[in-house]
Each structure stands twice: as C-alpha cells, then as structure tokens.
Amino acid sequence: MKPKVQADWNNALQILEGHSGWVSSVAFSPDGKQVVSGSYDRTVRLWDSVTGAALQTLEGPALSTVRNWVVEGDVSLLWLPPEYRETCISVWNKVIALGHESGRISILGFKEGPKYI
After folding, report:
1. Is residue 8 part of a domain?
2. Which residues fall in a coiled-coil region (predicted)?
C-alpha cells in the first residue's frame, strides 16, 4: 500500500497569484527561470520562477474554445462537431491547432472574424 502524501502549502516554493479566471495552461521557459500561464480571464502572464514576481501581462481577445465553439473574445466563430472537439489546443496569432481523441490534429487559421485563411 502506498503511503498517503499531503501537500504542505506553507512550504510551497511559490504561489503565483494574479489571474481572475481559471488557469488553463502553465509552462517553464527552457532555462527554468520564468513561468508563463494562460487563463480564461483572457490574459497570459509571465512570472519570475525564483521570486514569483509578475514580469509581464498580455491581454486581449484571443482564439480559444468554449462549449464546443472556436471563439475570439465573446464572438463565436466556428462550431465544432463531436469528432472535431479538442482534447488540447495551441494558439499562435490567428491560427489554432486542435488535438483530437482520434489522434488527429486540425489546424485552422482565421483572417477576420469567421473568415478562414
């Protein structure tokens, strides 16, 4: 039987606070000196991983998925049928990559609103 492990939040190396919505992604920089976090509050924040200091905040509407739709800000752009619903996403500028349960990946680009590239 495995021993139970309990987190002791008093001894955490850092607790980064600042997002007002759910944090949906977190990653370290290649050198481990910074952490980036993305949130449903429509911000991406860059942190110093040693001090916990907020270094930069990027704001604005970006492509994401909400309730089976590709959205930009509050605008629904494209409804995703069940076989195209994502298990993970990545966004770069106006391009969104969707990973699917089937093992496929869809890459979609948008010019303005619902206009595809």
Report:
1. no
2. none
Those residues with Cβ within 8 angstroms of residue 88's Cβ, 6 or more apart along the chain or in another chain: 98, 99
User: Is 116 a domain residue?
Assistant: no
Please give the order of strands across the beta sheet that includes 105-109: 86-92, 95-100, 105-109
Q: Quick check: pTM over 0.85?
A: no
Residues 55 and 88 in one domain: no
- Whole-angstrom distance, CA of residue 55 vs CA of residue 31: 16
Residues 55 and 75 in one domain: no
- 80 lies in the same domain as 47: no
Report residue 8 CA to chain centroid gap.
27
Could you tell me if 56 and 44 are in contact, meaning their C-beta atoms sit under 8 angstroms apart?
Answer: no
pLDDT digits (tens, 9 = 90+) for 57-108: 988 777 889 899 999 878 899 999 999 999 999 888 889 999 999 999 999 9
